[in-house]
Design a protein that fits this description.
Elements (H helix, E strand, L loop, with lengths): L1 H14 L1 H29 L11 E4 L2 E5 L6 E6 L1 H8 L7 E6 L2 E7 L5 E9 L3 H4 L4 E4 L4 H6 L3 E5 H8 L8 E4 L2 E9 L13 E4 L5 H4 E3 L4 E2 L1 E6 L6 H17 L4 E4 L7 H6 L9 H33 L1 H9 L4 H33 L1 H5 L13 H4 L2 H28 L2 H7 L1
Parallel strand pairs: 6-11, 8-10
Antiparallel strand pairs: 1-14, 2-3, 2-15, 3-13, 4-14, 5-6, 5-9, 7-10, 8-11, 9-10, 12-13
Helix pairs in contact: 1-12, 2-10, 2-12, 2-15, 3-8, 10-15, 11-16, 12-15
């Protein structure tokens, strides 16, 4: 029966091409706008290389040192390495713990300075390489021994290796980073700037730099590091968070001048993305409500317009509806037929809208994805970011909702019309 409905729907679409074009175009525009929002949000929170484990990670991106004697004294910055050593590394519930700095501009050069350029550098520990799933093209990451001893070893991206030596086969070669010799330990596949926690061109052990620069005050509570906690599963994140906070409370008990406060952190990926102030809890509910409202408006406005078009089309078919009612068709059957017919049109618009949304995201990443001045507009997108089953499922759901909103009321009104009136109107 559904097959018959769809055949009839296809015939009706071909019969009135202008009305079909308007309806499909309106659907495509609505789905395109919704899917751009969904795709951009998915890129920010979904798992993809090398941040493959976002769904079971916790983040500490900000910290506050609160005065012991005067609670009005607050200093906010990143975490100091001392906190990682005393409170985070000992975590028994975490699968891995790592720290890394945001990127800094560094001068990278061959030893003879025949090739030199600025690159983005991050200071990390050894655990960083276990939290993230980097694709090593050659070599391997530096380990705990290298970090503990401050050995000058470096991991570089594939594009950095090619600019320096013309090849990714660069393991064992020496380069200079800010005029300091480093030996390349590994080469990894390029990381998009959209993977904000893992992105860099060059990664070095944080101990290979001036240690005082890493922990800059407040009894070494604050520094330059973000902390990344990897739980065994998403369900284990509350346990990891509780243990981390308990360790911090124990450390705070012995503090003389400042106590560390995280204001709700460690955060999951959603909380980390919406947190906009180190001393305020992340407004997840407010952000979700805003997205729901925007999507509802985008769905509702074209649905109202297309509902009028659908009702107009139904009026032309009142005689057909009256005849079917006279021969025993139930209201439910008529409503089902009208919804199935409209669904074909909605799916056509949905597919077109999804394609256009991908074109927009890939063609305008700087406009759609830029949230600050960190150069994110230069980020590249890959298949892992874009082609996610969740995106396709949400696109189909949006089509169903739009179909129900635009055709549901006209279908019900047409099916409820008395048989005699339907025949007379025809």
């Amino acid at each position: 029966m559904i097959r018959i409905y769809l055949k009839q729907a296809w015939f009706l679409l071909r019969e009135n091409k202008l009305l079909t074009a308007v309806s499909v175009g309106g659907t495509a525009l609505a789905i395109c706008l919704i899917m751009v929002i969904v795709i951009v949000w998915q890129i920010r929170v979904a798992s993809y290389s090398p941040e493959d484990y976002r769904d079971r990670m916790l983040f500490v991106n900000w910290a506050v040192a609160n005065g012991v004697e005067d609670s009005n004294v607050n200093n906010s910055a990143k975490l100091g390495s001392r906190v990682a050593k005393e409170c985070l590394y000992p975590l028994e519930t975490a699968e891995a713990v790592g720290i890394g700095s945001h990127v800094y501009q560094a001068l990278v050069a061959t030893t003879d300075h025949a090739v030199e350029f600025e690159a983005d550098m991050s200071h990390t520990d050894a655990g960083y390489w276990r939290v993230f799933n980097f694709r090593f093209l050659a070599g391997k990451p530096y380990d705990e021994a290298a970090v503990a001893s401050g050995i000058k070893e470096v991991v570089v991206s594939a594009s950095t290796a090619r600019r320096l030596f013309g090849t990714t086969d660069a393991v064992g070669k020496t380069i200079e980073v800010n005029y300091v010799p480093y030996v390349i330990r590994g080469v990894v596949r390029d990381v998009s700037r959209l993977a904000e926690a893992a992105y860099a061109d060059v990664w070095v052990p944080y101990t290979s730099c001036y240690t005082a620069f890493m922990d800059n005050g407040c009894e070494r509570l604050l520094g330059i590091f973000d902390a990344y906690l990897l739980a065994p599963s998403a369900a284990d994140r509350p346990k990891v968070k509780a243990e981390a906070l308990a360790n911090i409370e124990r450390m705070n008990a012995s503090q003389r001048e400042f106590r560390l406060k995280l204001f709700g952190a460690p955060d999951d990926i959603t909380e980390a993305r919406v947190r906009d102030h180190p001393m305020l809890e992340p407004p997840v509910a407010k952000v979700v409500a805003r997205y729901v409202l925007i999507i509802a408006i985008i769905l509702l406005i074209p649905a109202i317009n297309m509902s009028g078009l659908t009702l107009s089309r139904m009026r032309k078919r009142m005689a057909e509806i009256g005849v079917r009612r006279a021969f025993g068709a139930t209201r439910r059957e008529l409503v089902t037929q009208i919804l199935c017919e409209n669904l074909l049109q909605t799916l056509m618009g949905g597919v077109l809208g999804l394609v256009v949304s991908y074109v927009m995201v890939t063609a305008l990443p700087g406009w759609l994805l830029a949230a600050d001045d960190t150069g994110i507009s230069q980020a590249f997108l890959n298949a892992d970011m874009l082609f996610n089953p969740v995106i396709f499922a949400l696109a189909f759901l949006a089509c169903l909702l739009l179909n129900l909103l635009s055709a549901g009321i006209p279908a019900w009104r047409s099916a409820r019309a008395p048989i005699v009136r339907a025949l007379n109107n025809g």
